[in-house]
Every structure is written in structure tokens, then in C-alpha cells.
Specification:
Low-confidence stretches: 1-35
Number of helices: 6
Largest sheet: 7 strands, mixed
Helix content: 25-40%
Structural class: alpha/beta
Strand order of the largest sheet: 3-2-1-4-5-7-6
Number of strands: 7
């Protein structure tokens, strides 16, 4: 088979890249970290449930509300808008963090809330006085030791739909339409 001049030039260029330390696509892919995959898909919490979660937690302007898996930011934004609380949203998806940040600006509470792209299992939650969740029960159960270990006594934990397993029964359970809300309070150690 006869090579055309452009094919020979292309082959020489590729060989030159490899021998001179150029980056081949496979090598680049091996060095690039993959974005973290979420453990659950994003499903927005309905507004009446958001309001009930904040109400059952007794949120006030003195609280710092952390939402683990914060999605579009609606829970911490509502806590800031309605109660004057401060809030932190922890979300693994950078596109949702951007959306939440934009939503906070639009709601006029960007001075009270912030959103970070981070895995909820490695997030520092020690400043929280209220933690909200809409995850899966298996994730809540994996998260439970971290919450008990890191949160101060008196911190309220509120979960939409999923509980923490039989080892940690909720202090209170509410039903809003077809949605269940669970409340726990971190006990003294």
C-alpha cells in the first residue's frame, strides 16, 4: 500500500509526539481524575416538605443549616429567606452547585448561604446546628456514625423520606401528603 504525503506527515507527527514526550489521548485520560459520581440522583424536595423540614427542626436566625446533597439549594435558601439562618449546601455535582449559587443570588440571600462541591462523607459539618438530608436509607445509615461523632449535642437532623435504621429511631416523624419527615436530635455523649 502506498502512503499519500499527508498520511506520511501525520504518521511522522504522531511518532514525534510519542518519542518527545507528547501526550497521547490514552495517557491523558489515565492522568485526569474522573469527576465524583453521586450516590443518588437529584430529585428536588417539594416546597411544602422543605417548609415542614425547617419547621420541625425549629430553625431560627441563630442556626447554621447544612444540607447534605443540596441539589439546587432550596432548603438552605429557604432557611435563610424565611428564618434568617445561615446555610451551607454540600453537593457533589458542580452544575448543581452553580445553579444553587445562582438561586441564592436571585433570592437575595447569597450573603447568608454558600454552596460547595464536595462529597458529603468528607465534608466538615461540625458548625451545623441543623442538618437536612434527602438521600437513601443505606446512605443515611453510612452517614449516621459521622453525624453522631462530629455534630454537637442538640444539633437537629432532619431527613425527607428515609430514616437512619432501627439502631437510631427518630424523635419525631411527620407525614406531609405522601412524604415522611424524620427528626433526630444529637444527644449528649
Amino acid at each position: 500500500m502506498t502512503r499519500t504525503p499527508w498520511a506520511a506527515l501525520l504518521a511522522a507527527s504522531l511518532a514525534s509526539m510519542v518519542f518527545q514526550g507528547g501526550v497521547a489521548p490514552r495517557r491523558l485520560a489515565a492522568q485526569s481524575p474522573r469527576p465524583a459520581e453521586p450516590d443518588v440522583i437529584y430529585v428536588p424536595t417539594p416546597q411544602p416538605v422543605v417548609e415542614a423540614m425547617l419547621d420541625v427542626a425549629g430553625v431560627t436566625g441563630r442556626d447554621v443549616v447544612y444540607d447534605l446533597g443540596s441539589g439546587d439549594g432550596r432548603i438552605v435558601i429557604e432557611a435563610a429567606r424565611r428564618y434568617g439562618a445561615r446555610g451551607v449546601g454540600i453537593e457533589i455535582d458542580p452544575a448543581l452547585v452553580k445553579r444553587a449559587t445562582d438561586n441564592a443570588i436571585a433570592a437575595g440571600v447569597s450573603d447568608r448561604v454558600r454552596f460547595v462541591t464536595q462529597n458529603l462523607f468528607s465534608a466538615d459539618v461540625r458548625d451545623a446546628t441543623v442538618v437536612t438530608l434527602y438521600l437513601l436509607q443505606s446512605i443515611n445509615e453510612r452517614l449516621r456514625p459521622k453525624l453522631v461523632r462530629e455534630l454537637k449535642p442538640g444539633t437537629r437532623v432532619v431527613s425527607h423520606v428515609f430514616n437512619m435504621g432501627p439502631e437510631w429511631p427518630p424523635d419525631k416523624t411527620l407525614v406531609i401528603g405522601r412524604n415522611r419527615i424524620f427528626l433526630w436530635t444529637i444527644a449528649d455523649r
